[in-house]
Amino acid sequence: MGVLFFFRLLVRRLWPRHPALLASLWVLVQLVYLRKFHGPHFANDSFRYLEYAANIAERGYFEPGHNLRYVLYPLFQSFWLWLGAGWWGIVAGQMAVSALATRAVYQGTRRLAEGRREAAALATLLFIAWPDIQQFNVFLLTESLFISLVALSFGAFTRVRHGGRKAWALLLLLLALTALARPNGFMVGLAAGLAGLDALRRRRDSRPWRAALFLLVLLSPLLWQALNHQLATYYLMDTYQRGELIFRYQLWAVHQAEPLNMPPPGTGPAARVLYFAFHNPIYLGRLMLGKLFVFVSYLKPHYSLAHRLVGVAVLWPAYVLAALGARQAAIWRPARVFLAAIFLLQTAIIMLTVDDWDVRFLAPVLVVVFVLAALELTARWQRRAG
């Protein structure tokens, strides 16, 4: 009881200064990772981004092919290289955008909590303190910018509830930038579109809803072409045949019980996936369930036992709280649909493609989990206090 009383007293004393404390913690975390990695960290894919960025900065050349799907990040890097700031400039830029993203998490969560700060403080604390988010700010990889853009898009989305044209323009700009940051960046814009469709469906006047559905039908050939374009540079059938749950990692793999029925040559990328699913449903189901477990469980084979235990202790309860928060009627429904759709779309993408050995694919959507979990948890605290 004495320890609990002391903790409550400490929280009360520090609460008026919590924005400054969160900002100080954010700065401390950046310094910790700069020290840990001895400055900007050159990782496995850094070379191709830096090479692409150098070509843009020196010759204005944009390389075609798969790398073009990450074009925003080499363009971001090229700006700092053009200024002569080098790797340190890139990392400083990533940290600046991350600071704005952290502020957006706080403000966006507070808007959804109707001005109350407890949920905003908790979601921001998790966003800052979770080790597999802020560390990417010192990596020369797309993850830092992508994580920040997802968080900024969330903040911008909460603005449109009471905002005007500027709020909508900011949201559309951020959704476009997010789509250019990574091949799966389109999912944030798609999540916003689904939230919009849900809002139209619930209106008394059904004409806008029917018009939206009719427009989707008209656009379906273009959407099919866009899907084929997105899948064109991925070798999904190869990973399916190898049974990979984690890219290029065979110790965790699904083994074939019988020969697979593969798509005939000349089949389009999206049609190949449908053909494979239709002719190998049990195998693909096992494969997708395995990827789902690997993606959300945080039990990656390369992690230490302590890393896994922290993930299980924090993320697993957070998933449950986030799922409950997504159903909480007191939270603005379009935001709930938007946040839930981001996580579910990213999960579906991983289940159809393949996961990575670390959390590069999970980290960008953890902000969604933290926001919804914080809103649910603080609502429970308030009900008990009341």
UniProtKB/TrEMBL annotation:
The keyword Manganese does not apply. It is a multi-pass membrane protein. Its main location: membrane. It comes from the Bacteria. One of its GO terms (cellular component) is plasma membrane. Keywords: Cell membrane, Glycosyltransferase, Membrane, Transferase, Transmembrane, Transmembrane helix. It is found in: Cell membrane. The chain crosses the membrane at residues 79-106, 139-157, 169-197, 209-227, 305-325, 337-354, 360-379. InterPro entries: LipidA_mod_glycosyltrf_83. GO terms for biological process: lipopolysaccharide biosynthetic process. GO terms for molecular function: pentosyltransferase activity. This is Dolichyl-phosphate-mannose-protein mannosyltransferase. It comes from Hymenobacter arizonensis.
